[in-house]
């Protein structure tokens, strides 16, 4: 079964380019982004890994760790990292999982349970379902799932935007509207009654409809 929002992110122990990790322990008390790739040395993923490395400080500011996944072994990851540095200007500055036994890919519903054999003998097309982004919270619950086709590079600025929303709405009883950017107006959550809202927002709110109560970002 595919994982969805609210599910506990499966724990696992695996080799990475930064040593062996136990996933939940590695996340610790913060947030994490796990993003997967069909194979090493694929063109779109090369650009993605480089861009993620260039904006890693933005994730770090938010208390978010990044980790990548491919079925290739660690030595392939190391060689690919050199290509990424040379072609994209920034080498991966986060661990890359070597999912050579497909364990993590299967746990996260990205490959069928019957996949086995030599991972380096599989083509990227055979692994095309390995194009996911999972955002995982400190409670180890999945907060966001994105799945992209092989021919469309992922928008990691959007992942940052969503994390800003997730972290804000986890602390305050609000929701964020379409096209919201950090600092923009928010919507009072439907779980908050008007009476409760008056206590929290004594200056009131804009309400184009009774169920749309707009206030400045907390």
Shape, principal axes of CA atoms: elongated
Quick one: biggest sheet? 5 strands, mixed
CATH class of the largest domain: Alpha Beta
Count of distinct strands: 11
Euclidean distance between termini CA atoms: 38 Å
Radius of gyration based on Cα positions? 20 Å
The CATH H-level superfamily of the largest domain is Glutaredoxin
Cross-sheet strand order for the largest sheet: 5-4-3-6-7
**So, CATH architecture of the largest domain?**
3-Layer(aba) Sandwich
Return residue spans where pLDDT drops below 50 for at least 5 consecutive residues.
none
**Helices and strands: which structural class?**
alpha+beta
CATH topology name of the largest domain, in short, is: Glutaredoxin
Please give the count of helices.
7
Number of domains: 2
Strand content: 15-25%
Task: Work out the helicity level.
Answer: 25-40%
Order of helices and strands: EEHEHHEHEHEEHEEHEE
Average pLDDT figure: 97
């Amino acid at each position: 079964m595919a994982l969805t929002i609210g599910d506990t992110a499966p724990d696992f122990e695996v080799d990475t380019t930064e040593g062996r990790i136990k996933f939940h322990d590695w996340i610790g008390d913060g947030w994490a982004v796990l993003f997967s790739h069909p194979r090493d040395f694929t063109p779109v993923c090369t650009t993605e890994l480089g861009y993620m490395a260039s904006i890693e400080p933005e994730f770090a500011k938010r208390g978010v760790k990044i980790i990548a996944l491919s079925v290739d072994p660690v030595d392939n990851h190391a060689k690919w990292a050199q290509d990424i540095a040379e072609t994209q200007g920034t080498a991966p500055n986060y661990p890359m999982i070597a999912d050579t036994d497909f364990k993590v890919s299967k746990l996260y519903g990205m490959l069928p349970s019957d996949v086995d054999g030599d991972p380096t003998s599989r083509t990227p097309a055979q692994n095309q379902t390995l194009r996911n982004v999972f955002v995982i919270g400190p409670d180890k619950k999945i907060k966001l799932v994105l799945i992209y086709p092989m021919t469309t590079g992922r928008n990691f600025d959007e992942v940052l935007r969503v994390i800003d929303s997730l972290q804000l709405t986890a602390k305050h009883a609000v929701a964020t509207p379409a096209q919201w950017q950090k600092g923009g107006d928010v919507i009072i959550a439907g779980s908050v009654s008007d009476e409760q809202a008056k206590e929290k927002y004594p200056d009131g709110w804009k309400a184009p409809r009774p169920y749309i109560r707009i206030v400045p970002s907390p």
